[in-house]
Write a structure and sequence with these properties.
The protein is of the alpha/beta class. It has two domains: 1-75 and 156-165 and 189-220 and 228-244, P-loop containing nucleotide triphosphate hydrolases (Rossmann fold); 82-151, no CATH class. The chain has nine helices and ten strands. The strands form two sheets. It has a six-stranded mixed sheet with strand order 6-7-8-3-9-10, sandwiched between helices. A four-stranded antiparallel sheet has the order 2-1-4-5. Helix 3 (91-101) crosses helix 4 and helix 8 (216-223) packs across helix 9 (228-236). The longest helix is centred in the last third of the chain and has 16 residues, at 165-180. The structure holds adenosine-5'-triphosphate. The site of adenosine-5'-triphosphate has 13 residues, from strand 2 and helix 1. Pfam families: ABC_tran.
Length: 244
C-alpha cells in the first residue's frame, strides 16, 4: 500500500507539490491523472526518494520513504523509462544486475531473473543485447527490471508513452495480472482512455494537489457526468494538457 499525506515540494520557483494526499491500495490499479505540470512525476520521484519533500510524508507498506529509504525501496518497483536501457547488456544481464542491486544474492538473483523472463515470455530475447530492441521488447525488459525482486508495490510514470498499440496491450495485460496477484500498482498518466480502461481508483491531480479520488464510476456520479473525461473536466475546470 502506498500512502501520501500533505506532500509539499517547491522546485526553483514552482510549487510542484502543494499538500498532495492520496492512497493506493493492494490489489488495485490506481491512476494519478492530471494535466501537464500537475506534479505527477514529482510525486513519483519523491516516492522513490529521488527528491526530498519540503513537508508531508510518503509511506510504502507503512515505511516512510525518507526515514527508511532502503527498506522502502525493497517493497517498491519503479518502472523506468524503457528508452534508457543499457544497450550493451542482454535482458538477463540487465535484470540480474538490478535484482542484485535490490539486495538478492547472486544465485537468488539468477533464479528471480529466470522466473521473470519466463513470466513475461522473454526467453527468446533473454540473451540478446538490448541494442536494436523494439519498443515492446524494451518495455518488457524495463518492467522485468521493476518487478524482478517481487516488490509488493509497483510505480510507473506514464508507462505507455511512445508505445504502439500491441505494446500498450501487452503492458495492460501485465498490469492486470500483477493486480490479480495482489500488487499495489500506481501509475501516472494524462491519457484519459488508458486510465478509464485500467484503473480501479483515480486520483485527479491539479496544481500539485489531489482534488478528488474515487473509482471512475464514483467520479462520474459525484460530478453528474457520463464519462471519466467529462468528470475530469468538471473537476478541474479545463481539459488543457489531457489527451483523449
Ligand atoms: N527540475 C525542475 N526545475 C524547474 N521546475 C520543475 C522541475 N521539475 C518539475 N518542475 C515543475 O514542477 C511542476 C510539476 O512538474 P511534474 O513534472 O511533476 O508534472 P507532471 O504532472 O508529471 O507533468 P507531465 O504530465 O507534463 O509530465 C511543473 O510546473 C514543472 O515545470
Amino acid at each position: 500500500m502506498i500512502e501520501v499525506q500533505g506532500l509539499t515540494k517547491k522546485i526553483a520557483d514552482v510549487q510542484a507539490l502543494d499538500g498532495l494526499s492520496f492512497s493506493a491500495e493492494d490489489g488495485k490499479i490506481t491512476g494519478l491523472l492530471g494535466p501537464n505540470g500537475a506534479g505527477k512525476t514529482t510525486c513519483l520521484r519523491t516516492l522513490f526518494n529521488l527528491l526530498r519533500a519540503d513537508d508531508g510524508w510518503a509511506r510504502v507498506d507503512g515505511v516512510d520513504v525518507s526515514v527508511e529509504p532502503l527498506a522502502a525501496k525493497q517493497t517498491l518497483g519503479l518502472f523506468p523509462d524503457p528508452f534508457g536501457l543499457y544497450e550493451r547488456l542482454s535482458p538477463r544481464e540487465y535484470i540480474g544486475f538490478f535484482a542484485e542491486l535490490n539486495g538478492l544474492g547472486k544465485a537468488a538473483a539468477q533464479q528471480a531473473c529466470s522466473e521473470v523472463l519466463e513470466r513475461l515470455q522473454m526467453q527468446d530475447i533473454a540473451d540478446r543485447r538490448c541494442k536494436g530492441f523494439s519498443q515492446g521488447q524494451r518495455m518488457k525488459t524495463a518492467l522485468a527490471q521493476a518487478i524482478v525482486h517481487k516488490p509488493k508495490n509497483i510505480v510507473l510514470d506514464e508507462p505507455t508513452r511512445g508505445l504502439d498499440v500491441m505494446s500498450t496491450r501487452t503492458l495492460r495485460d501485465l498490469l492486470l495480472s500483477l493486480k490479480a496477484d495482489g500488487h499495489c500498482i500506481l501509475f501516472s498518466s494524462h491519457v484519459m482512455q488508458e486510465v478509464s480502461a485500467l484503473c480501479d481508483e483515480v486520483v485527479v491531480m491539479a496544481a500539485g494537489r489531489a482534488i478528488a479520488q474515487g473509482s471512475p464510476q464514483e467520479l462520474c456520479e459525484r460530478t453528474g457526468q457520463d464519462s471519466l473525461e467529462e468528470a475530469f473536466i468538471a473537476l478541474i475546470g479545463s481539459d488543457e494538457g489531457i489527451a483523449a
